[in-house]
Write a structure and sequence with these properties.
Elements lengths: L4 E8 L2 E43 L2 E24 L16 E6 L5 E3 L3 H9 L4 E2 L4 H5 L6 E7 L10 E8 L7 H34 L14
């Protein structure tokens, strides 16, 4: 008969509390469960001093998707955690405001509006905006083809002159365009494979056996063949 709640030195139940606890929810010094809490915790969600799971929280943790700990390995994490899932894009917040346009810097310092004014109509009718002298050095440091977000200041109504770019923000290129990123990605991929293998050997196999094998939480009446 399934034990819905079990308490003891060795507890096996849907909810288990014990020195060695196994269950869907397991709490103990050594806990194995879908949700496991203990000094040593193994589970899909594991919380403990040492934790191994899909999500792991502990002083030392291995989390396939996420890890929190003083030292850990995880897809993403918080603390001193080695990330094993690479980021393909840079963290960048686009400037707010409707006056900003995305432009591409060409080798001859001419700006080519990208998608502005309904497919570049403005660029066809008017000369390229001039660059504010304070930004010229920054523009010269860019590589051909770099993308930037620029804010164009129009001349006052009735005044002569061309529009002027008075603010610019460099858009970082995708990480995969950086040759060094591929080496980091390869190391992260190896770490991800190692974390998956560790999870399956340390947590996955014991958890499946503890829940469904003969004598397990959901199969308590069965007996192993002699």
């Amino acid at each position: 008969m399934i034990r819905w709640i079990d308490v003891g030195e060795e507890a096996h139940g849907v909810i288990a509390f014990g020195q060695v606890a196994t269950g869907v929810i397991a709490v103990g010094q050594m806990a194995t469960g879908v949700i496991a809490v203990g000094q040593v915790a193994r589970g899909l969600i594991a919380i403990g001093q040492g934790a191994v799971g899909l999500v792991a929280i502990g002083q030392g943790s291995i989390g396939v998707f996420y890890a929190v700990g003083m030292v850990g390995i995880g897809g993403r994490g918080f603390g001193i955690v080695l990330p094993t899932i690479p980021k393909f894009v840079n963290d960048f917040r686009m400037p707010e405001g409707k006056d900003w346009q995305q432009v591409r810097y060409l080798g001859d310092l001419k700006l080519e509006p990208v998608g502005a004014g309904g497919g570049g109509e403005r660029a066809d009718r008017r000369p390229a905006p001039r660059i504010d002298s304070r930004l010229r050095a920054a523009f010269e440091a860019r590589q051909p083809g770099d993308l930037l977000m620029v804010r164009v200041r129009e001349p006052e109504r009735g005044a002569e002159g061309d529009p002027i770019i008075d603010e610019a923000v460099h858009l970082p290129p995708p990480r995969w365009k950086d040759s060094g990123w591929w080496g980091i990605w390869a190391l992260q991929l190896c770490g991800l494979i190692a974390a998956c293998v560790a999870f399956w050997l340390i947590t996955g196999i014991p958890l499946v056996q503890a829940l469904f094998n003969p004598g397990g939480v959901f199969n308590p009446g069965a007996r192993l063949p002699l």
